[in-house]
Amino acid sequence: MSKELTISVISPEEILFEGSADHVVLPGATGNFAVHSDHVNLVSELVPGLLAVVSGGETREYVIDGGFVEVKQNVVSALVEGTIGRDEIDSAQESVELDELLGKIIPPEERREIENKMNKHRARIQYAKK
C-alpha cells in the first residue's frame, strides 16, 4: 500500500513548501526525475531548473538555482540554493546574460559552472513565459 509523501523545499531565505503531496519533479544532473511514494531512498544533486510539487491536481512550481535532495522513507527534503518568482524574472535581461555566457570560450575547468549558469537563465526564461 502506497504512503503519502512528505515534502520540504527549503532555501537559505525561507521554507518554500512543507507538507504532503502526490509527487515531486526535480531537475537532476542527468535530467528531470519524479519522486512518488515508496520511491527508493536516495541523495542527489539538483541543477538549476524547475522543481514542481504536485498535490491533489494542483502544481506548485519553483525555479531553483541548484541544490540537493534526500529521499528517505517517503520523506523528500530538497535544500535549494535559491529561487526566483515568475514576476521577478526579466526575460530580456536573462537572454542578454545567456548570450554573453554563450559567447565565451569555455575552458574545461569552468565548463560545469558556466553550464549551470546557462541552465539557470534558461529555466527562468521558460518559467517567465508560462
Please explain how this structure is put together:
There is one protein chain. This protein has two helices and ten strands. It is α+β, with helices and mostly antiparallel strands and 130 residues long. The model has no long low-confidence stretch (mean pLDDT 89). It is 25% helix and 45% strand. The chain has helices spanning 91-102, 108-128; strands at 5-10, 15-21, 23-28, 31-36, 42-46, 49-55, 58-64, 67-72, 75-80, 83-84. It is globular, with a radius of gyration of 16 Å. The longest helix is centred in the C-terminal third of the chain and has 21 residues, at 108-128. The chain has two domains: 5-84, Sandwich (ATP Synthase, domain 1), CATH 2.60.15; 89-128. The strands form two sheets. Strands 2-1-9-8-5 form a five-stranded mixed β-sheet, with no helix packed on it. Strands 4-3-6-7-10 form a five-stranded antiparallel β-sheet.
